Amino acid sequence: MPAPTTLDSDTGETPVTEDGDRVSARRFGTLAVALAVVVGLLLGYAGGLLTPRLTRPGDASVEAGFARDMTTHHAQAVEMGLIAFQRGTDQEVRTIGGDIALAQQGDIGAMQTWLRSWGLDPTGSQPRMAWMPDGTEMVRDGLMPGMATPEQMTQLREAQGKELDVLFLDLMIKHHIGGIHMVDALLDASDEPDVVQAAQTMKNTQQTELTNLQNALKRIRG
Prior knowledge:
Blueprint: H1 18-50, H2 62-87, H3 91-117, H4 150-158, H5 161-189, H6 193-221
Helix pairs in contact: 1-3, 2-3, 2-5, 3-6, 4-5, 5-6
């Protein structure tokens, strides 16, 4: 039952109810994060353009394969993060979701800029994960390590309440573990300083987020 409203004794106007405040705040927050995601993407592009290039990795290089595959991997995480931010019921879950969406959208912008600056297409002719030793064997039904299946993504989109919070945390933990494994492979194989530096930053960020995700899941499950 909506909260009753009364006229303000000084202005004679009807104030916004507490429920209305929460709805308005949630809508404002969603718009703010959506705008920040776009800004993060643009900053990622700018960062990629400003990074000096002494060499140009080829189409079948480790760097190009990583940029292409991690873009796809990140894109799923952005969607998952936005779902958690917009519809999660736990405040920490919403915060984590928003942070992941922002950070990974910025990474996508940088990686796509690398490919353009190298004169390469966003998609290449190599199989998924071919840049990584035994990487093609890790692909399952077209999905890279840690990625949620189409069925799991549908379940997340339709989930409500605590079920959504728990499912997001569980899926994102697996997603980050898979992503970190891919970053480690890049760090072992690449000697491109700017790519290595960006990948190390990705790993550091995801390791911190992974700890937060695991702690939040433990708390919510009790």
